[in-house]
Design brief:
216 residues, alpha+beta, Beta-Lactamase, 5 strands, 18% strand
Length: 216
């Protein structure tokens, strides 16, 4: 396979030149001015772009997916690698990773955008989380709760998220800036709405319904 002109000279020894075009992951390479000098076939498929049309041009105007566009524009001003999971049609999840490319001498020569389909990986994570939640419910002596998230107030959902993080009542009170008695009241109403009777069952409910601890 003939390499795109200048690819080997630009990328140094960090890539297996002959395998770039056949990668299962999408790969876009740009120079220091942000101009595209290589797009492999998988990236064309994921992004819905043509290598011929974007060659030598800035990538951003050709990104039709709003999530990818936002991610790429953020990555362009970052000095460190950036990664994010982005939702695509047909419930696909694409993990985008942007990093700075270096020459053999360690000089920045551009950036790389790697696009990996992690749909199955994310599905397995959800399945494992649900399995763990059910096991927790069994250990806690409960059954699948039938309460719905739609019934919860914003504060009750916040409490549930913090429960999933393993916070005690005192820690909950500190995070919410309320008294421990107020936390106890929130928990009482929360348990009733989601159909559980203990902290462990509430935690299992959170995991089962995809509720994750809030980012710190």
């Amino acid at each position: 396979m003939r390499l795109p002109e200048g690819l080997e000279a630009r990328c140094g020894a960090c890539l297996l030149y002959g395998a770039i075009e056949g990668l299962a992951d999408g790969l876009v390479l740009v120079d220091n001015q942000g101009r595209v000098f290589h797009v492999n076939r998988r990236a064309e498929q994921i992004l819905g772009i043509s290598s011929e049309r974007v060659q030598g041009r800035k990538l951003s105007p050709h990104l039709l997916h709003a999530g990818v566009l936002t991610f790429w524009n953020s990555a362009l001003v970052e000095a460190q690698p950036l990664s994010a999971d982005l939702a695509f049609p047909e419930r696909k999840t694409i993990r985008a990773t942007a990093s700075i490319c270096l020459s053999d001498s360690g000089e920045p020569i551009g950036r790389a955008l790697l696009l990996r389909d992690v749909t199955r990986e994310k599905t397995i994570q959800i399945e494992l989380s649900a399995s763990l939640a059910r096991r927790l419910l069994e250990m806690a002596g409960g059954e699948d709760p039938e309460g719905t998230l739609a019934d919860l107030t914003a504060r009750e959902r916040q409490v549930l998220e913090l429960l999933a993080a393993g916070l005690s009542n005192a820690a909950l009170a500190g995070r919410l800036r309320v008294s421990v008695n107020t936390v106890a009241s929130h928990l009482k109403h929360l348990y009733t709405k989601i159909g559980v009777s203990s902290r462990s069952q509430a935690t299992a409910y959170a995991i089962l319904h995809g509720i994750r601890p809030p980012a710190r």
